[in-house]
Amino acid sequence: MLNVVRGFTAITQRPVPVAAAGALGVSTSGLFVALSSTSPGTASFFRCVFALPLLVPLAIAERRHRGAPTARQHAWAAAAGVLFAADALLWTQAIYEVGVGLSAVLVNTQVVMVPLLARLIDREPLSTRFVALLPVVMLGTVLTGGVFESGVAGTAPVAGTIHSALAALCYSAFLFLLRRGGPDQPPVQSYVTIIGSAACAALTGGALWWGGVTLTPGWGPAGWLALTAICGQVLGWLLVALSSPLLRVEVSSALLLLTPVGALLLAAVCLGQVPSVWQAIGCVLILASAYRITAQAPAT
Questions:
Q1: How do residues 12-34 score in pLDDT, each as one tens digit?
Q2: Whole-model pTM?
Q3: What are the distances in angstroms from CA 238 to CA 58, 232, 233?
Q4: What distance in Å separates the CA atoms of residue 94 and residue 40, rounded to the nearest whole number?
Q5: How is residue 245 annotated by DSSP?
Q6: What does the alpha-carbon distance between residue 163 and residue 83 come to, in Å, rounded to a whole number?
Q7: Cβ atoms of 170 and 109 closer than 8 Å
């Protein structure tokens, strides 16, 4: 299994195409979830369950190569998994309400939430660029959600915008908790803990509040959810996680924008979900601001 680790190390010798492939892999998740036509609870549960058999062998190989995470790191990863499940549940709901592409763009508002959480809890400073771009992101969110328009894509765009924003908040808190595990935590083993915890939380939360969890969704829906797990949950995440640390921040930030852009294109081509002009402008504002924030110089 050590050869698996060496194989991924070899892949990272070309980090730019690897990161691009990972970001595009993640961009397929929303489309596959929408095609499954399953409840948020069912989709969130199975995308985690189907990912585990693929991740566990990699985690075993990593353990032999790097050692095991500490109990503290496992605890932070398990807590983060609960927030990961909340993000998945809310985002899946938003997919059905505002569409595949727009929900992916709206979730990118997490780039402003993570620094705000760090400021609130750890008293980390905010850069002047971040403060200047915050109202731009807020305006972009309102425009992308089609709050002041009628006849836009999606069954409930306002509700979808709210659910997307809440998903972004949960994902921001998820990233914030991951930082508590420290930079030296073995990534794949921690990710297995996260996904296992998220599966349990999605099963519980989905059964109680999100339309129930169908344990036998049928071959068709199960196939789409398996593709979600393979392309987004496993391959996409691994490729991005392995390549991003090897790239300059501005390059990594630009490549990660392929995820919402890819989701927008897939939604338009495969599902006919085309944003209005104002929604497109809102998407540009959010994505441009996300790039400028994540590619910024150290806070001053």
A1: 578 888 889 999 999 999 999 99
A2: 0.90
A3: 10, 9, 8
A4: 9
A5: G
A6: 14
A7: no
